[in-house]
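Would you mind writing out the residues of a protein together with its fold in token form for me to study?
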Amino acid sequence: MAYDEGLAERVRERLGADPGITEKRMFGGIAFLHRGNMAVGVTGDDLMVRVGPDATMQALARPGARIFDMTGRPMRGWIVVAGSAVAEDEVLAEWIDEGHAFAASLPPK
């Protein structure tokens, strides 16, 4: 599955100042990792965000958000945000910052 290169570039620009960020192809898309922990990614036209188990319900209440479930088994602490819901830079930045903050709270891999 291809992924939205434009969305990936917008994510890359937001995270670009952090030297701890690396990129890796995953889930048929691209993932952005902070010290080895996935923070956000792009799959198809959508944004994957690692919010953590405690923030999942709050995140799901936001426009365009749904549980991350690619295999029939939902992943705890992960959500997917529809690409149309992150069309505005401010909204995208909020999601990226949330995923980045959660990944930064984890020990490096």
Observations:
- Residues 89-104 form the longest helix (16 residues).
